[in-house]
Amino acid sequence: MSNLEIKTLEAEIAALERTLDEKKFRLQQLKSEHVSCPYSDVLSSEEIVRYSRQIIMPQICKSGQIKLKESKILIVGAGGLGCPASLYLAAAGVGEIHIVDYDEVELSNLHRQILHYEHDIGLPKVQSASEKLKRLNSNIKIVPLHIHAFSSITDFVQKNKYDAVLDCTDNAPTRYLLNDICVIHNIPLVSGSALQMEGQLTVYHYNNGPCYRCLFPKPPPAHTVTNCGDGGVLGSVCGVIGVLQALETVKILTQMEGVLSGRLLIFDGSETTFRNVKLRQRVTTCEVCGDNPKIKEPVDYEQFCGARAHDKVVNINILESEENVTVEQLRGVLDGNNIVIDVRSELEFDMCRLPNTVNLPYAKIRDNKSLGELEGLVKRAREGNKNVYLLCRRGNDSQRATSYLRQNFSNTSVRFWNVKGGLHAYSKSIDPTFPVY
Ligand SMILES: Nc1ncnc2c1ncn2[C@@H]1O[C@H](COP(=O)(O)OP(=O)(O)OP(=O)(O)O)[C@@H](O)[C@H]1O
Ligand SMILES: [Zn+2]
User: How large is the ipTM?
Assistant: First the structure.
């Protein structure tokens, strides 16, 4: 059986499974519709049984369950945080959940984005997420919005009057955008973040507490912001924070005490500790939530932050075309007779590498911490009449490294070449079994 046949069959089965799921969901919906409970109002018999374990809690009781049922929330980001958060909120019976994400499911998402399964790869994350949530709870309404929050989020917030918004994204421009929209429309914002072994959580603009701008009137310098794609993250750390976002949201929707406003919770997964840090109060001069706000409608957040509102890497182009070689040319020089420097981090190099390559991370080269090693390699190249090739994940850092070498070793006969497109291009054009991550 050919690869193509396998892929076609897998796609057909996935499509059939989806149709079946939709039909089951519709059936369940029809069955539960209008089955009002003669023994209770507003909640159906099915709902009473389903939520009984939380309804019998004094903190929730029937009135809290009804509040959840009548709530409408917006979750932005169906990734590491949005998946666990939405699972618990759907399970708890939040009546209407709108989920925004522009992205599609990738293999490297599955270790933490627990609503997405193998057969969802390539599908919009919101589609994959809403299918699972509907299967979990057919009583509630899930609205998937496969859009970038910047395109039409203001319209959605204006139209829908959400009771809470969850920021489950991973970039500064979106954080400011959601903050400003929530303040302008007076909606609490449940904000989470996770990186490596650490996570953070707080609720902005709640009960006269501070907003994101009160704490961070100026965005962080773009180069200091690390995302999961670069720094990595443990799936269960996202789970901890996402589930806590769900908890805070339930508390807000049911008007419980103790919402995490004016406080920041810091979770350290390496020590398994939680710390509560008191945050500053609402700033009366804050540009958006202050007493005389300047910002009354969304601004240009990408310009404000000097960063893009997504984590898709933008390819740079700082070299002349004759300073590049293609991955096809690279294949011909991987025989050990040339010097190929892989400038990814040591951890990435350890994870997977091409044969006969050496590792010198660009971060060290940039900070002049590899001069000795570079001098040694350049000497070896000169004496052996070899070229030096620079390689990285996508071809950006290798361009920077090539340019550094050309400047710092300008008086040598050795030629420095950048491998265009890096290991991603190698995997695409030469050997698809090389892992693209
Ligand atoms: N402005 C935005 N509009 C819509 N979705 C957004 C926006 N900004 C971020 N997101 C989404 O938020 C989610 C953040 O989750 P997370 O960081 O776990 O995933 P990721 O971007 O897939 O990570 P990776 O870096 O591994 O590719 C992503 O699915 C991303 O598409
Ligand atoms: Zn503020």
Answer: 0.98
